[in-house]
């Protein structure tokens, strides 16, 4: 089957994020007051339909936003201390120039014993420019959250290595030169173009198969994820 006859491959990272935020939402009792910090278009709001959902975003990127409860810097959320029972902090921290200030503010607005769901990229190209500052390893995440008072309850890959393969190949297919002239028309460039003609259809097939494989079961034995996720807790005695 050719590339043009196939449907667009699904994004396993996005599917796993929906699944993981849904699982986090299901773990919360009805009536839990939840803050979606950096909520964007609020695409996962339905996973918290049984909760008292509030949202905050600075709304400065040229994209579609949901109807934010608070339009503000996440380092200065206009609410009282200890307002929230839970926080969703998803795909946001890489966009913060001073993440420690925001973690301190989220700690402030959470009740003692409240939990926070985090997700964010380890491997991803620059996006939402110019508001894109960092990528976080698991060790960096543990350091930052514990430094700002949180207990690390859970820290793991959000998606599997086949999601990483899917994303790498899709970007490669989009960005590779299409002609030898783009590479200077050297003998090596001409030879490379011949090989790429054979590579592209195989890579496109791998994209489809790898994406479906990751959606069905995350492979985490080797490689690295596109995203990490974590559940952290504000200590009950805080």
TrEMBL record:
Gene3D superfamilies in UniProt: Vaccinia Virus protein VP39
Keyword terms, alphabetized: Methyltransferase, Transferase
InterPro entries: Methyltransf_11, SAM-dependent_MTases_sf
Pfam families recorded: Methyltransf_11
Highest taxon of source: Bacteria
Record-annotated Methyltransferase type domain positions: 69-117
GO biological process annotation, one example: methylation
The keyword Lyase appears for this protein: no
GO molecular function, one term: S-adenosylmethionine-dependent methyltransferase activity
The keyword Mitochondrion appears for this protein: no
Protein's UniProt name: Methyltransferase domain-containing protein
